[in-house]
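Supplementary notes for students who missed Thursday's class. We covered one full example, reproduced here. Read the sequence, then the structure, then the short commentary at the end.
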Amino acid sequence: MTWEADLKMESLSSLVSMLRPRAVHTKLITGSGSWGARYGRIETTGFGLVLAGDCHLSVGGPHIRLQKGDFVLMPPCPEFSISSDPNAECVPFVAQSIEEAPVPRHHGRPDTDPEFKLLGGYFWFDQTNASLLPHLLPELLCVRNADVHSQRLLATIELLVDEATNQRPGCDLIVSRLVEIMLVEALRLAGEEPGIRPLPGLLQGMSDPHIAAALRCIHADAANQWTVADLARRAGLSRSVFSDRFARKVGIPPMEYVLRWRIALAKDMLRRDLVPLEKVAVRLGYQSASAFSTAFSREVGQPPSQFARAVSREAVSPPTRICR
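Structure (token representation):
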């Protein structure tokens, strides 16, 4: 593994551990003949694996063709259309909730053997830091079956689906770990699709060795009193070039990213541990609990103590259990 790959994996591990993905709900989507469906936005992360045939997928932009073995991840799941060909009429598909959607979903000619099969699914992130997703990940990630490295991902999905659909002791724990592995594998393999402009975010930042070096520093030592000049030196760029490249690749200026990452870490600490605010402040590089509280309140909209009380009262279980 190259040092660039090491940097990418460290950043991905930091992100996934912060998001705490858990639970999975899978369904089969099939089609025959000419068909098309448009699905509304759902505030969870969706994924799909083509099991047979091919289809055309659009997430508010150009269509991409998916073939057997191709995998897509949509965090969070936006409005999208899926069809047998780009010109097919897409019928709106509406479900009040994931659980109310029929299983399986068949599109096209009724009472015929499906020519197309896709295993669709959803999983949930801990809401404490789910707001990181729109800023760090694009709406659509695609892993092609032709990628020789995709077999690990496909094997993980196979295990995930087997555990999620069969009631065995320890199912919830195993599925939660497999979801984490699936997410990391998908993120590390996701490539740019021809004709689709890559959106700024963490993956774009990690694709640039200079920006990846700065991200690694931020993730490894959030308490450090980072400046743009410090990060530019670590990236091996001039301050002006670094600032411009970081903003273009990641989508926000470097110091704003540092602040958002610190606040995300703080929310994670406050959710998990009964840590005094003074210790949280020190761990994140603030000079005092009051300075930390001011920064936290400005970003989150409520003081850290109020946030900690609120998350402690919230149920952390997803809408449905993994194994039923």
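Commentary. The chain is about 45% helix and 20% strand. The longest helix spans residues 171-189. If anything here is unclear, bring it to office hours.
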